[in-house]
Amino acid sequence: MLCQVFPEQYQSQLDEKTQRLQDLVPSLHHLTVFASEPKNYRARAEFRIWHEGDDTNYIMFDQETKQKVNIKQCPMAIESIADLMPNLMAEIIADEVLRLRLFQV
After folding, report:
1. How many domains does the chain have?
2. What is the pLDDT of residues 70-98, one digit of tens each?
3. How far apart are CA 103 and CA 105, in angstroms?
4. CATH number, domain at 43?
5. Residue 1 within a domain
6. Which burial class, exposed, middle or buried, applies to 104 when counting CB atoms under 10 A from its CB (0-12, 13-18, 19+)?
7. How far is Cα 45 from Cα 61, in angstroms, rounded to an integer?
8. Quick check: is 19 in a domain?
9. Does some domain include residue 95?
10. Could you give the CA distance from residue 68 to residue 20 in angstroms, rounded to a whole number?
11. 2 falls within a domain
12. C-alpha span between 22 and 52 (Å, rounded)
């Protein structure tokens, strides 16, 4: 589920989140909700740089299982971040100091 989007479920997820907020804070009688785009909506992203042998990858940790998950692309990130990810990884891999010493971006 990390870095994945499900545009076909967007409206139902938004409705559920809105309802949960209204249940938590009943005084929000006139809550106005502004929908985001169903993908490319996150302007901030943080990834670990995982070094394993000669491999270097972006990873995130699954909050439930604590397992590492390789991230090849992240369609929830805004296009400028999503487009930069493969180019940045290529530069990290090409530079020995970054490849061995960089742990988070």
Report:
1. 1
2. 999 999 999 999 999 999 999 999 999 99
3. 7
4. 2.40.50.1070
5. no
6. exposed
7. 13
8. yes
9. yes
10. 29
11. no
12. 45
